Amino acid sequence: MKTQNENQKAKLVSIGNEFLKGKVAIFLLITAAFLFFMAITQAKGQKKVYNECRAQNAVYEDAVDRKSGEVHKVKVEADQHGNAQGNQYDLAVDGAFEGETVAVLHLYTGEGFDFSLPKAALKEKGFSVYRWIDNPPSPKELEEQLKKACQLWIISSNVQKLNEGHLKVIKKFFDSGKGVYIWGDNDPYYADANYVAEYLFDVKMLGNLPGDVVVGLNNKGKNVGLMPKHLITTGLEYVYEGITIATVQETKLLKPLIYGHEGNLVAAFYDQGGKRAILDGGFTRLYYSWDHAGTGRYVKNAAAWLVNYERFAEVTK
Asked: Which structural domain range is residue 105 located in?
């Protein structure tokens, strides 16, 4: 028979074991709660930047046949120009870039060009706009203000207004991974566009060709229209090329983005080494015939792409 002391020891051991089990259970519960909290916090912290249709020109969605119940793809409703209708078919989600700033060297302001139309379009995606109008700031001020910007747009005039100091600031900004959009137009309205483009890419714009035509997708290598299946051309099957336009020189450094109806390269892009830029010979699209095919969406897509989000943060898929 067990003695009284042995019984007490057995009870103590049993109580101890139960206590330890309880501590382990509490520890496991706390650990599970912590992991759950971290998962929820991480999920909330993730930001959806791109729409599901990214890099699609013609957008199709699932539809259920009422009779058969079968699911098949149906092309979404188009606007009057043939592009998918609705901001959900832009590259970026509305408000995705809240707090980001597009800096603009707005050096040409003729013909009522006040940048109000692009500004309103960019606001839909969350961008604010900071402009220097007609004349650039000093290189020092430019560098300081660019610290607050995610990209720089340069809209050229017919007279060179930038200097070597500006070029160095722009190159430093570009080399950091921030986007640059270089806008020119028909001869001679590409003075600073060429000044910057030659410095960064050893390429320039030239000429004066009649435009005023809506072009489609550049399929089968015809060198007319939009580059298909690119992030910038998301939701676009048609785009207005501009009134009179300059031609961007073709080079291995740049990829074609938009060809005009005469086969001239209107816009090209650079996407190498974590750096992005666009060169464009038709800035008249930013204020003339804005309601022609695709301009608003193109502007929004281009700005979203130039943020270079893939470099600075992982895109939520």
From this structure: 60-65+69-312
